[in-house]
Structures are given as C-alpha cells and as structure tokens.
Amino acid sequence: MHAVLARFGVDEPAAVARTEHGLLNRVWRVDAADGSRWVLKQYLDDAGHASSGAIAAQHATIAALAASGLPTVPPVAADDGRTLVLHRGRRYAVFPFVDGAPPGPLSPRAAAELGTLLGRTHAELRRIQPPVLDPGPHPGSWPTADPEQTRRTITALLGEARARAPRDPFDALAEQRLRERLVLLDAHAHRRPRGAPPAGWVHGDFHPLNLLYRGERVAAVLDWDRLGVKPVAEEAVRAATQFFCAPASGVLDLARVRAYSRAYRAASGHSPEHLGAAVHRVWWERLNDFWMLRWRYARRDDRASELFPAAAAQIVWWCEEYQQVLDAYVN
C-alpha cells in the first residue's frame, strides 16, 4: 500500500482504515503524516467496469462534471500523470477525502434540490459524453423481466428458504414474501412494459450511500463505477424510491417525491411522459427482482439482507397505490 500511495505523492500514512463503502471494491481512508486525508480505492470488479480504459474514461467524466460546478470528486494524478496505478495486478486510484455523511430525512426543499442536482447531472452528462444511439421506445429495445422466469426463480428461492438450517425469522419472512409475490405476479403479469423512455448516460448507482451531505447540502456524489448508458429517467425514479421511503415499511413520502420529480424534470428536460414510462418500468423491475435473496441463498452473502424487509414491503404497497405513485412523479 505504501508503494501505491507514494506513486500519488501521498505522504507516509499515519493511519489507514478500511471502510465499508461499496460492495464491489476495496476502499481505505488514509490519514497522512503531513495532515492531509485521502481515499485509496482498489478496483476489484472485473466485469467490464474495471478495465483500465473504462476507469480512465470514468475519471475523465468525474473531472469534467466537477469543472462544470457539480459536486464530484476527481482523482489525483500519479507520478506519470495518469489517475490509475497498476500494482501487482490490481488497479488503484486516490481521491481527496471529503467530510460529510449519508443523508438523513430530507426536507421538501432538500428533496427538490436533490432532484435539481440529478437533473443537472443528467443534462451535463448528455453534453460531455459521447452521443448515444438510442434504440427507441419499441418493445425489446431495453428488455424487461419475464414473469415466467420470475416464477421459476421464486420456486427455487422458496426451496432454499425452507431448507435453510438453522432457520431464522428472516427465512420465514422471505418465504412469506415469496408466496405473496406469486399472487402479485398472477394479478399483474399482463402489465409487462412494452417500451422505454429515452436512453443516455447515467451515474448508474445514485442512492443515499453514494452521496455525502453537510447538513441538507450535497457535498459529494461518489462511486461512479456504474457510469453507463441506460434509460435515463429510470435512474431518477429509482433514486426517489430509496431517498424517500420509510425504513421499515418502504412506503414512499409522495409529497417529497413530487417536489423532487418536479425539480428533476425542470433541470433535466425530461417530460412527464418520460417519467411515467420510467415509473412503470421500475415498478415492474421491483416486482420481478430478488437480488437480495439470491445473495443470501445462492452466494451465502448476507450483506444485502437488511435491505430486503423494506424493499419487499414497498412493492406490495406500490401495487396497491400505483396511480398515486405515478401521479407524484408526473404531475
């Protein structure tokens, strides 16, 4: 580690602490002997996002967004002028440390400011990134979950939950929610989305743990590892379901969603129709998604299990209140 830090001109570390930030990479906070503070990141995700070219492009985008006045944190350059160092087969970058904390509950004003921030980010990405050839809204352009495959997934997960030894209350909850989801699928299978809103560049992982706040102001947008091309308005819809949900029930604060979405549309240029299509696609995605349970039962990894109770409750509520949720995003 010392050899890597030296490449970036970081003074001898006085203290190094591994952080819990991120599921895909390793991150350390480094307090240097000269009083400066840094973040050292080791890229582990090798599924295309962690190639040297992809990371270099990601770093250039972060710097361009910062130059436009957005709260991103560009990496520092190493001794060869690059922002990425290869050491013993692994890629590393160093970022300035930013004081801040994940957001607590946001006021309606702060919710609107968040919508403006994400809208400005999407508009700026549209300006600085390579043009996107959008396949358009026709069916198949951006695939959606197949409910028959979802039923097969549920059947397999039910078997895993019932066979778990020793069983705990989480397994009972998982079994209850999986049976419940089968009923919801039967009721809504005919509503599979047929198209998508316009595609473009997105952050890719815009949620509360990837933003640092000071008070009610965003100090930094972190973790651009999933920068890529997707239906843009879906990121706005997905983010609101995470920022404005009750921790236990998953119920959305629709007044804050409305303030956020209105500000997002004004800053991004996306229309109510775009947001409406995105709401439907994200709702369908959540109805068919079980990644937290797959981590627990297939990968034996419980890091995401604490997210499941609220997420599972939210989709039940969303099915009941679909029109109210849609209205909050588009009106």
UniProtKB/TrEMBL annotation:
Which keywords belong to this entry?
Kinase, Transferase
Superkingdom in the source lineage: Bacteria
**Would you tell me the protein name for this molecule?**
Predicted kinase, aminoglycoside phosphotransferase (APT) family
Q: Name one GO molecular function term.
A: kinase activity
InterPro entries listed in its UniProt record: AGP_Transferase, Aminoglycoside_PTrfase, Kinase-like_dom_sf
> Residue ranges of the Aminoglycoside phosphotransferase domain?
20-268
Source species taxonomy: Bacteria, Bacillati, Actinomycetota, Actinomycetes, Kitasatosporales
A Pfam family matched by this chain, by name? APH
